[in-house]
């Protein structure tokens, strides 16, 4: 079972989109970042897709236990 697609709180550079995609697909965040940067050399809406993912992928929740 694959991990849920969320933007992690750790290992972020800008928004955590590449780290979240890497976590979801089982690769390293640096590989996803390099692929994204190389794709920006090609014509297309890569930057707009990144912004859309930033808005629509939820942030990872931290589980804090309340002490009662």
Which SSEs are present, and which pair or pack?
Elements: H1 17-25, H2 29-39, H3 46-56
Helix pairs in contact: 1-2
Mean pLDDT: 85
Tell me the span between the first and last alpha carbons: 34 Å
Assign an overall shape: globular
Structural class given helices, strands, pairing?
mainly alpha
Number of beta-strand segments: 0
Reported for the largest beta sheet, the result is: none
Per DSSP, the total helix count is 3
Question: What oligomeric assembly is this protein in?
Answer: single chain
Poorly predicted ranges (pLDDT <50, ≥5 residues)? none
Hey, roughly how much beta strand do the residues contain?
Answer: under 5%
- What is the H/E order? HHH
Global Rg: 14 Å
Helix content: 40-55%
Concise account of the structure shown:
The protein has 68 residues and is mainly α. It has 3 helices and no strands. Helices cover 46% and strands 0% of the residues.
What does this structure look like?
With 68 residues, this protein is mainly alpha-helical. It is built from three helices and no strands. It has helices at 17-25, 29-39, 46-56. The model has no long low-confidence stretch (mean pLDDT 85).
Task: Offer a few descriptive terms.
mainly alpha; 46% helix; 68 residues
